[in-house]
Design brief:
single chain, mainly alpha, two-stranded antiparallel sheet, globular
């Protein structure tokens, strides 16, 4: 589930799990495969894709097609 509700707690929702991805990407750029294997203990595959979609739409991450990596967008 993307957002928390009566049944899904915040920590189990996609919004609650997105910081896990951002924390990994803040350390280094990763390929999609590397990022998934690093975070697979926290996500099912569909949750992982939803989280990436939301992060991309929020401009929190970007994709470098030339390098084939996902990059954390630092907005400081």
């Amino acid at each position: 589930m993307i957002v928390p509700n009566k049944v899904i707690s915040f920590s189990e929702s996609i919004i609650g799990k997105m910081p896990i991805i951002l924390k990994c990407l803040s350390k280094e750029e990763m390929t999609l495969k590397e990022l998934f294997f690093t975070t697979q203990d926290y996500f099912e595959i569909d949750e992982f894709i939803y989280a990436l979609d939301v992060l991309f739409l929020l401009d929190a991450i970007k994709v470098d097609m030339d390098k084939g990596v996902i990059i954390y967008v630092n907005k400081d």
